[in-house]
Amino acid sequence: MKIKVLFCIFIIVxxxxxxxxxxxxxxxxxxxxxxxxLDITVDYTQGCFLSITNNESWAWKNTRLELNDRYTCxxxxxxxxxxxxFEISLCTDSEGMKYDYLLQTCEKLVxxxxxxxxxxxxxxxxxxTEGSSTVPPTVNTTPIRASEAQAALVEYQTAMEPASARMVxxxxxLQAVLLHPxxxxxxxxxxFEDYEMxxxxxxxxxxxxxxxxxxxxHTTPIQGDLLELRKETIPFSRPEGKMYTFGELNMKGxxxxxxxxxxxxxxxxxxxxxxxxxSVIDDCTTLExxxxxxxxxxxxxxxxxxxxxxxxxxxxxxVLIHDCNPHCLGI
Length: 331
What we know:
The protein is an alpha+beta fold. Helices cover 39% and strands 18% of the residues.
């Protein structure tokens, strides 16, 4: 019986990049100009997310969105009073090209749907115009303190090395029980649980450290223990590698969980008396080969997420705040 040998593969490659896209730093207030025969509330945050609320007394059907007279996407139905939020970067043109909110400006949105009688209703929404400085009511304006960010960074970085060492140790322990002449599936299950927990601890330190380093790269400590936004560096991109949307990361995460669940199931079958050793080894090898790409995509999403948050924050704040519009900027 030929047994594959696990290779513990760990890639920890990340850097901080400050962008060179100029920005006036002036605060703006979204003042939409719209018309149509559809009662709707639109929240456009000059980023990638669009929030739509159905204010009609009937459910929308066959809902469509058109962006800049070029990009389109179909949306699910919306019940009366229901709100949905989605990424407009999912909209594509006739050639399949996605809308890139970093390179393009939303100038016009057209939202259409069918009412219960089958009549098409529409709403046309134009780009925001500049006005007085306004903070959206959902924003948490509590500032993130420079000392808090630095302390959290030290904590994550301090945890990184032992977390990495623990993951290698647990990988080796799992390999040992898998290659034992008389494999004990109960021991294999325990070793795999330890390895999975070590992976999670490592990811926590890796992603936490990266998030704070990105935030510090685009802020400057000022008086009052505050972090002033370096608006000349916003928006920004990932210095090496791609940025990924939540939808792309979510699909990768589903694949990750599928591998984990399959390994657990195979080990449980082994405990029940089946000979699943080769399958467990094959899938553990698959997991090892999968992890570097998963880490890279996760880090790419962190760049994407923070770029979007800071691009929105600099419209109504000069310092780094917790925001919570819609997601809180945690440290």
